[in-house]
Design brief:
The protein is built from 8 helices and 18 strands. By secondary structure, it is of the alpha+beta class. The chain has a 6-stranded antiparallel beta sheet with strand order 9-5-6-8-3-10. The protein has a 3-stranded mixed beta sheet with strand order 11-12-13. A hairpin with a 5-residue loop joins strand 1 (24-25) and strand 2.
């Protein structure tokens, strides 16, 4: 049921009608009727002022009703209260984590908290005491000292200790880089998680529970597989934002969160596993075959793949539907794949190469 919000003009007319429906007694005892429709009259001014004030009340009432629903509540309104009631706190900004490779000619113990930087603008700290052996390259866990995407670093980037141990000749990020740094969870994603928790209440270890816990710890896509390592085990396959596999550090973070005593399911061995990314090539012909249409079809396919989950089946018919949604393409023929492609339970498909064939 929707609530109609009257305009200021409508409220002023209601005020005027109410005045006209009543008779007032003047000082001389005569009966008078006040007409708020009379141009420039005090009654007309009063009706407009009253209508403007009452309009604010209506708007407040409307906004309050919207705040009562999770789907329309706002970040500065009652959405935080809904989140608290459904035990879905907003995921705060995250610090990047990962490992660096330290090459040294002198044995030493690297203390927790020792900081590194690239250009002085962002720093990272050693997150666990690590022994460095002479003449070796050692993997050292680090965490950004500030939250946000600024702490993310690609693989193979050189860093410098603010106070370098003796004998260190090289420090670089490992093959996974430093990842996971993120801004505070955006409102749309937070709202979606609250709604998901309302629709799938905690159940003591259901697939919805494991999905919720993994997402709370930073995963973007989740597939829960029972009996992953045998009877009584659960495999939690996770992919991170951007449809990428998690790094070992991210896997450890999610595993630690799920294994916490407050969430651990009795008699269930839950193992967090990184997703395996696979690419699916597409071969097709389109008409008319133009650069603009190729770009539009590529965008449609990219969007379609973005909507597929872990362990999905890639159906040619649904791929056809995605291509058919490009209105400027009047005809097309999909050649690859011709049969449904069933992914393994730990696989996630991304769009691979597109081969453009000649129209028949």
């Amino acid at each position: 049921m929707t609530a109609a919000i009257p305009t200021v003009s409508e409220l002023a007319q209601r005020f005027a009608a109410a005045l006209l429906s009543r008779t007032f007694t003047a000082e001389d005892g005569s009966s008078v009727t006040l007409d708020a429709n009379a141009p420039g009259s005090p009654e007309q001014v009063l009706s407009v002022v009253h209508a403007m004030a009452l309009s604010e009340v209506y708007r407040y009432w409307r906004d309050f009703q919207l705040e009562m629903m999770v789907s329309t509540a706002t970040e500065t309104g009652l959405l935080p209260m809904h989140a608290q009631e459904w035990k879905t706190p907003r995921i705060p900004a995250q610090a990047a984590v990962g490992n660096i490779l330290v090459t040294t000619s002198v044995s030493s113990v690297l203390p927790e908290g020792r900081t590194l930087t690239i250009d002085g603008s962002v720093s990272w700290a050693v997150s666990a005491e690590t022994t460095l052996a002479a003449g070796t390259t050692t993997s050292v866990p680090v965490r950004a000292t500030t939250v946000g995407t600024g702490g993310n670093v690609a693989a193979g980037v050189a860093l410098t200790f603010v106070s370098a141990p003796a004998g260190v000749s090289q420090v670089v990020t490992d093959g996974n880089g430093l990842v996971g740094g993120a801004a505070i969870e955006d409102v749309a994603t937070w709202r979606a998680r609250i709604l998901e928790n309302i629709r799938n209440a905690p159940g003591g270890g259901t697939p919805s529970d494991y999905t919720r816990w993994a997402k709370n710890a930073g995963a973007d896509l989740v597939n829960v597989v029972g009996g992953w390592l045998g009877i009584g085990s659960v495999g939690i396959i996770v992919a991170m934002s951007g449809r990428v596999a998690p790094t070992p550090a991210q896997l450890a973070t999610i595993q630690t969160y799920i294994s916490d005593a407050s969430r651990r399911v009795v008699r269930a061995n839950a193992t967090v596993v990184g997703v395996q990314i696979v690419t699916q090539s597409i071969s097709l012909s389109i008409a008319p075959d133009t650069d603009a249409n190729r770009s539009a079809v590529t965008a449609a396919l990219t969007s379609w793949f973005a909507g597929t989950g872990i362990g999905a089946t890639l159906s040619p018919s649904t791929i056809d539907s995605a291509i058919a949604g490009v209105s400027s393409v009047t005809d097309f023929e999909l050649s690859v794949p011709l049969q449904p492609v069933a992914l393994q339970q730990n696989q996630l498909a991304n769009l691979g190469n597109i081969t453009w064939l000649a129209s028949s």
